[in-house]
Amino acid sequence: MATATPEAVESRIVEALASFGPDIEQVTRTATFEELDIDSLDLVELAQIVEDEWGVELKGDDMKGLKTVGDAIDLVVARAA
Amino acid sequence: MGRNPLSTTDRRGCALVTGASRGIGAATAKVLAADGWPVGVGYNSGAAEAEAVVKEIEAAGGRAVALGGDVADTAVLDAHFTALEERFGTVLVLVNNAGVRRDGLSPQIKDDDWAAVLETNLGAAFRATRRAIPPMLKARHGRIVNIASVVGLRANPGQANYAASKAGLVGMTKTVAAEVARRGVTVNAVAPGLIATDMTADLDGELLKVVPARRPGTPEEVAACVRFLASDEAGYVTGATLTVDGGMSA
Lengths: 81, 250
Fold this sequence. Notes:
A: 81 residues, mainly alpha, Non-ribosomal Peptide Synthetase Peptidyl Carrier Protein, Chain A, B: 250 residues, Rossmann fold, 7-stranded parallel beta sheet, 7 strands, 40% helix, globular, ACP (chain A), lipid metabolism (chain A)
């Protein structure tokens, strides 16, 4: 399983989110999922990627509070530590 | 094999029908194969019958594979999906048909009668649905059809466990349908009434009195409805429960 350095997590999450539709330049730490048109099903897909890459299991309640790209990155980094 | 006008499938993918060695499941596997889907024919006890279904499909020019084991066991279910994915691609049609009955008036239904019926009829259907959905979301296409029962909609003394499992399927169908609708994945239920199968062979003529059509339905009549719900043409039908009951629940 890959080491979850903050840089690695950020890079993979940004890449995954961009694959769901938005231009990769738009996917910044402060961008909200709403602005990026990333919906709850996209986040389910993201959770699967995160689990496969780093073994971090995100449940529905964990995902509820996520508003921005930075929120997701920080959560995964904290959980993987 | 002639293509039905409801045909879905120049898509690369396949169908899984649980409990398909006989009855409604077998009839459904055959019509989905006729529509061009490679089909996983799930079975628990009826290995020879499942192989016969596969042979019949192959003889008609279709593709199918028999998949044995108890779908109430998550590992078995997962192995079915993996086998189909490796051989035919994404499971784009899932028909949750495997079901059991352990009848008795409520005071006589033991804990294990309750648990076994809920686990197989509802629990396995949920877990199969959960396993099927992520690849369907990625494919932006999927069809899940849950075989419920008219007993999930109206009373039938002696089947509290069965009724609870089937009513549960109807509720699960609606909510999962709403969750995934925006990705082109539909989830529907078919609620058969009295259908002439091995599973109902012990039921006598008494029940026919409440069937306005005054005859039992056939597995093929149920399969025809599943075939429609699995087709492209049914893309705007989701969260629905289609009764196939000769008017029993009307």
